[in-house]
Amino acid sequence: MKNMLFPSPKPIWEALTESVLCGKVPIQLSGAWQLMLLGDGSPTRHLSLLTGYEVTVELVAMQLETSPTKRAPKEIKELKTPLLRRQVWLKCNSQCLAWAESWWNKNEADHHLKNKNQPIWKSLTEGRSELFREVDGLALVEAQWLEDRFETERPFWSRHYRFFRKERELTVIREVFS
After folding, report:
1. Does 62 score more than 50 pLDDT?
2. Which pLDDT does position 41 carry in this prediction?
3. By the number of CB atoms within 10 A of the CB, which of 11, 85, 138, 164 ranks highest?
4. Contacts of 171 by beta carbon, 8 Å cutoff, 6+ apart
5. 54 closest CA partner among 134, 124, 121, 146
6. Nearest Cα to Cα of residue 176 among 120, 99, 119
7. 166 falls in which pLDDT band (50, 70, 90)?
8. What is the pLDDT, as a whole number, of residue 144?
9. What value does the mean pLDDT take over residues 11-34?
10. Residues in a beta bridge with 163
11. In 10 A of CB 99, how many CB atoms?
12. Residue 58 and residue 55: Cα distance in Å, rounded?
């Protein structure tokens, strides 16, 4: 399925945006999951620290997004068109630990994602530029293709957030963890 985007996973439970923004979701999460899902730190950095291995990226596809689906985060409406959608698998020592998709203004993607096979965080911070991350959504999701790749049964924790630079939206990212 190389060079084809997967459909966004189906949410089976979603937290209200207001509860995610204040970090008080109506579900019991362990401390590690709270940091990973609700924290504003880099998940690729966290995965690397947890496993002791560098995170590698396997690019699924990167294509123009002409009409976002209803499963896309509502925050992508804040991005200027034309939109580009990128999907990747995140791996540590060949173990697939997460899947991510991101939406970008095409010009911003061309500027910031020169190396398509490295984590977004690494691409965006190479020049030590200031970034602000705001976690907007938390969900439990399902998709057969996620089960197949993660080699475990659903549901999976998912979050989506925006990166801001100079007070404007740069990208919207959704991550799903195995």
Report:
1. yes
2. 79
3. 138
4. 79, 102, 103, 104, 108, 109, 120, 162, 163
5. 121
6. 99
7. confident
8. 97
9. 90
10. 133, 171
11. 26
12. 10
Q: What is the pLDDT at residue 45? A: 86
Count CB neighbours of 96 within 10 A. Answer: 15
CB 120 within 8 A of CB 113: yes
Q: How far is Cα 75 from Cα 171, in angstroms, rounded to an integer?
A: 9
**Cα-to-chain-centroid distance, residue 82:** 20
Residues 55 and 92: beta-carbon distance below 8 Å: yes
User: In the numeric block, which tokens belong to residue 4?
Assistant: 């084809």
DSSP codes joined into one string, 110-170: HHH-SSTTS-HHHHHHTT----EEEEEEEEEEE-HHHHHHHTSPSPEEEEEEEEEETTEEE
Reference 64, options 82, 79, 78; nearest CA is 82
State the amino acid at position 95 in one-letter form: Q
Query: Bigger pLDDT: 63 or 128?
Result: 63
28, 165 Cβ separation under 8 angstroms: no
106: its two tokens: 């095409």
- Where is 66: in which H helix or E strand? none
- Classified as helix, coil or strand, 37 is helix
The pair of three-digit structure tokens given for residue 108, joined into one six-digit string: 């911003």
CA gap 104, 14 in Å, rounded: 23
